[in-house]
Each structure stands twice: as structure tokens, then as C-alpha cells.
Amino acid sequence: MAMDLSKHPCFNKDAKGTCARVHLPVAPKCNLSCNYCNRKYDCVNESRPGVTSAVLSPAQAVAYMEKVLAVMPKVTVTGIAGPGDPMANPKETLETMRRIKSRWPDMILCLSSNGLALAEHVDELADIGVSHVTVTVNAVDPDIASNVYAWARVGKVLYRGPDAGRVLLERQEEAIRLLKARDILVKVNSILIPGVNDHHTEAIAAKMKTLGVDLFNCMALIPNADTKFENVPAPTKDQVEAARATAETYLPQMRHCQRCRADAVGLLEHDCSRDFSGLLESCSQLPAGMDTSRPYVAVASREGMLVNQHLGEALTFSVWGQDGKGGYAHVADRPAPPAGGGPNRWHALAQSLKDCRAVLVSGVGDTPKTILEEEGLVVVSMGGFITQGLDAAYKTGNFDAFKMRKAGGCCAASGCTGGGEGCG
Fold first, then answer.
1. Cα 389–Cα 52–Cα 100 angle in degrees, nearest 5
2. For the segment 46-71, what is each residue's pLDDT rounded down to a tens digit?
3. Residue 362 — φ and ψ, nearest 5°?
């Protein structure tokens, strides 16, 4: 089934009552200091950008999506909107997008960015399948921008004042041009700040039109405590509507924005972030790299009860899965590749266990651990009952109580008979 781009509720108001969205909070870092922004991660009662109840890794985000879709099948859009800036966290953002698109090919992908580090990733975003991007543009004049932002960071260089405004505006313009060249729909958010840029909306809208922007969203400032603008009064509804009317002579206006959180869930007019905050928090406790789309867990065990073999000395791996009744079932025993193959041995093991999300062992060398984790397996060094490890892998995500402490070489903690050099 072809992806229906009209099912994005932000870009199409007719979809707002039937098509839900999920924001995945995988991007905590930011490269721009906005004078109106104060990010808090722990208040489910706040509905504003930059707020989330937890931060997820890409693997945790997929686990969260699976659970959300199980109870909310109307979700048509997955977005990344922070709580920092998605492109200040490019590795996490791009990996999450890839995983979501691979798992749900018809899902609409979008992100919201300040645009400072967006241009260099446009081609990759387009290749992944991101179809909608929002860029926040609060000025098209560096002097006005210097009153909106405290600083902008590009790589290791920190810009302040008009220089920050200049570099930001140059990079925003480049990013939008590149996005449109790749046929990506672009919405511009613009925060209306009384006494700062409220006289500037027409200039912003006019410039955005020349860049081919598709939709303009004029948003009222939310005065946040402990920010430079905490005492700046929010614009009235009449002021916002007047700004929208002016901008509308240049671009179509979005008038149904709900100021979504970085962990928003549900319909625009019926956000369920509070209801899903517990689920979000529990998923954030899963092992960060664990791919929960893989159904099984492999175990190195001598007798099938305890996790008590080093990765390199196991001749077979016991594979376990959930039994559908809250417990676990033994699925198979898979032979380990023969010793002596060096790195190829661990690539072969990763292939044998490609349907496993984790492998539980009593010890492991650095080389095999690195290779297996690059292949998508979480390697956990632990002691205790297999069922304890399975509970951590499938339910709590917390292996801390069972983890083995490594003490010299790859085998000192576990009694491995190998030579301590990775058991290749």
C-alpha cells in the first residue's frame, strides 16, 4: 500500500480527528539556545515543545512504538521533535527513522528542527523516506535573531549575537532549499514574541515563500520560568490572528497546532502523553541497544538453568522466547561456530543468532562483544538463573543485579578456559 501523505494531521487539518501521531523523544542535545526555551523532562502536565517524560534510544523507541500501535492503531505519523534538536543528535535520529521505516514501511516520517545542522543530512533523510519537515524560523534578519537566541553552536564553534543569527539564517535557508529540491514537504513554525519579532512576521513569510515552503505556522510565545523571556507577555489571540492574516497573503496557514510535546501521542485534539508516560518510562529502562523486534534471547548455559558459560567456551547456545502466558519457553539449541576463526567466528555467531535480541553469558571478551553488538545483539555478562535474565530482557530492562564484574582479561570473572584474548 502506498503511503498517503494526506494522513499527516499537522499538514492536513482534515486528518486531525482521525489520524494520530507519535513523537519519539530520542534527541536530548541541542545546538541552539533559544531565549524562550526551558526544557523539563518530568512534568506530564505541560504541553509544550521541549518537554518529555523520558528519553529513548533508537531500539527503545521501536519497542515503544510496538506497544503504542498495539493499543492505538490509528497512528499514521511518527515524528522526532526533541526534546533537543533532532539534527544535533543525528546518529540517534537517523537510526530511529531507519528502524521505524524498516519495521513499518507505510508510516509517515517527519521531524522538527531549528535548521542549524539540517542541510548536511537532507539527502539521508530523503533516502530513508522522511516526507515532512518542520523548521522553526523566528527571524530573517540577523539583528532580530540575535534577540531571540543566546548562542548557536556549529561543530566546536560557538556564535553569539548577530553572528549567531547570521549563521543560523544562512543554514536554515540552505536546508529549506535542499529539502524542497528533494520534494520534501516543509512547514515553518514561527514564534510570535511581542516586542521582539512581532513586527517581522510579514518579512519571514515573504522570504519563506521564495524558498518554496508549503505551510506557515504562527505560534504564540509561551513565557517559561527561568528564561530570558519569562516576563514577556504572551501575545493575545487577536495579535496571533493578525499575524496569521498577514502571513496568509504569502503562504497557507496552520491554525490547528496544539504545541506538541516531544513525547506527544494520539490525536492533535486528544493528546494521550499523560496516559502513555508510564509506558514511555518503562521502555526507557530497556537495554539501550536492544532490538525488541527480534523475538528471542540466546543463553550460554551448561545445564539449561543458570547463565554460567563464557561466550567463547559455549559449544551451543540455548535459545528462549516468550510463551504467551507470561513465562518463557525453550525454542532451540544452536551450535556455536568452531573456535579459531578470529573475528569471522563472531560474525558467524551473529548470523546464527540474528533473530535474538540479546545473548546472556557469564563473560565475554572485548572483540566478540564489539562485533556482536555491531550486528545488533546486546551482550550481557551476568550470573544467576536464566529466568532472571529473561525477565530483564523482556520486562524490566534492568540487568544490574545480575551483571558480572570483569576482573582482568576476558575470563578471570567467569573461569573461562580460554586464553583471555577474546576467545577467537
1. 65
2. 345 667 878 888 888 988 998 899 88
3. -90, -15
